[in-house]
Amino acid sequence: MVSLRPTGAGLGFRRELIPALKARVPDAIEFFEIAPENWIDLGGAHGRDLAGFTERYPFVCHGLSLSLGGPAPLDEMLLAKTRQFMDAHGIALYTEHLSYCSDDGHLYDLLPIPFTEDAVNYVAARIRRAQDILERRIAIENASYYTASPIAEMDELSFIRAVLEEADCDLHLDVNNVYVNSVNHRYDPAAFIAALPSERIVYLHTAGHYNEADDLIVDTHGADVIEPVWSLLDTAYRIHGAAPTLLERDFNIPPLGELVLEVERIAQLQAQHCARQGDVRRAG
To answer: How far apart are CA 8 and CA 247, in angstroms?
Structure first.
């Protein structure tokens, strides 16, 4: 099967949404995203449903459990199964969190990697190995975190840039995670985004979150996107271009008709920036 790259605005392919999507996929949705761990080796009606959609739409695989920064050996069997799954469904892009989620067992959370030179080299080597097994470049996602490591040797931005360079991989920019971290750790989110390498950004997420306190935000993916995050997405498009962008919603999922309103807003922002970029090229 020919692998399809995502374009435009997308939505997570969740099982509770399948009946509505089978009735009609809204025009604003140009691609879908899935966690491969939840679909590999799945047969029956759900497996047939997935195949029916991957034949018609681009999909992205967004991993949840590879634990790129974890101390346990890299799960090469999962990577091999993921490659076979992506080949079977024509999926070109795989992304994973720049974090860890396992030690001797699964920790059921995404935990931050200490921002050190040793961690850069360790994680980059695991990313390179993952790319070799998947036979694809992968994109790493900037993660939200709540407690700064006491052994950090650099800031979050420097760490991300160093890993990208050392691993020679791409960046999955989660705009909501930048906003969450900017509040929790008190930095300028627009300046953070501006300092990321445009040439490595291939994919974006936006999502909602929960305000625990004035100075503490929890990344939940369980609420509507707020206006400051929409503004930050607009900033990311202005600086780096309108890469494919997914609306991430994992909890408190409303009906498809409500969800698609936010997907439409992503598509509208993308169209505005594409039009502006076209005007600039014509003027030049």
So the answer is: 11
pLDDT at res. 108:
40
Longest distance between any two alpha carbons in the chain, whole Å: 58
Owner of token pair 């799960």: 75
Element (H, E) at 107: strand 106-111
Spatial neighbors of 115 by CB under 8 A, at least 6 apart, are 149, 152, 153, 154, 155, 156, 158, 159
Could you give the CA distance from residue 163 to residue 170 in angstroms, rounded to a whole number? 10
Q: Cα angle at 32 between 254 and 100, to 5 degrees? A: 90
Q: What is the pLDDT of residue 213?
A: 62
Quote the CA–CA distance of 162 and 157 in Å, as a whole number: 9
C-alpha–C-alpha distance, residues 137 and 276, integer Å: 30
Q: How far apart are CA 212 and CA 226, in angstroms?
A: 15
Cβ atoms of 278 and 21 within 8 Å: the answer is: no
Six-digit token string for 247: 């609306």
Tokens of 144: 């939200």
User: Backbone phi, then psi, for 56, in 5-degree steps?
Assistant: -115, -20
pLDDT digits (tens, 9 = 90+) for 179-219: 999 998 899 999 999 999 999 999 999 998 766 666 667 77
Gap between the Cα atoms of 3 and 135, Å rounded: 13
Q: Going from the N-terminus, what domains does the chain have, and what CATH number goes with each?
A: 9-283 (3.20.20.150)
pTM, whole model, 2 decimals?
0.92
Residues of the chain with pLDDT under 70: 1, 100-111, 210-216, 221, 277-284
Strand partners, 94: 61, 138
Q: Residue 71 corresponds to which amino acid? A: P
